[in-house]
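hiii, so i know i said id send this last week but things got crazy w the move. better late than never?? heres the sequnce for the chain we talked about at the cafe, plus the structure i predicted for it. fair warning i was half asleep when i ran it
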Amino acid sequence: MLKITNENFEVSFTSMGAELQSIFHKENQIEYLWDGNPAIWAKRSPVLFPVVGGLKDGTYQFNNKSFYLNRHGFARESLFSIEAQTKNSIVFTLETSEETLALYPFNFKFSVIYTIEENKLYVTYIVENKGIETMYFSVGAHPAFNVPLFPENEYTDYYLEFSAIENAGIYPIKEDGLISDKEIPYLNNSNKLALDKSLFHRDALIFKNLRSTSISILNNKNPHGLTLSFEGMPYMGIWSAKDANFVCIEPWCGLGDTESTNQQLIDKEGIVALEVGKDFKTSWNVSLF
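okay and structure toks below
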């Protein structure tokens, strides 16, 4: 198991998917990350690239060709290389291969950088266009945090606190897996959302227009929790597997296909267009207490 550490944390990873495996707070003796129980949800913190969410019929169109791509893209199922590692940071990279070109016709380098400083874990994504034409992609995070953090607590002891007062609706995921074009009112002049497992019985809560740049997981029984900051990542998904003891706070640069999709990659809502020789950088971080 790959690890980085400082006086506060020990954080571990696997090269498969450059995925977080553990975020352990030494002083508090708290494991913050979901354990990946395969009977419930085998992932812990998948990296989403080159798409976020699902595609209509699992396919997209580019230059009059059709390509198949699994939900959330191939990065989470790809073996990354380790480009650099220090005591408190690690850099994973994924580059174009014959396997990726069959799914995604662009030459790229995708780097995932993890760094711990004091009480924060920083996660940075860098996408580089190594090809001869503009490339189109989405990138996002999917970390699952334990709720409750202590066995003596209940899921319903916890709540989400947004950094700004919100009047924001959600965009439901329909039975066919596509995101509805119609917004449903959800947060009404509020910055708190009480956690209950029933919130996620119909899949994720998807927000497009949050004013907040961070969301905290807090509880009513003790002072321990976390704050995830995502400035610069415009979309947010909040999700849990049905009746599971975790919640995912998912900052995204991109969205799954909506019901009005024409399946053209260049027209996809939230898609990032990156010119030849340029790079794209975005990040999120989590403070643990």
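btw Residues 98-101 form the longest helix (4 residues). thought thatd interest u
miss u guys!!
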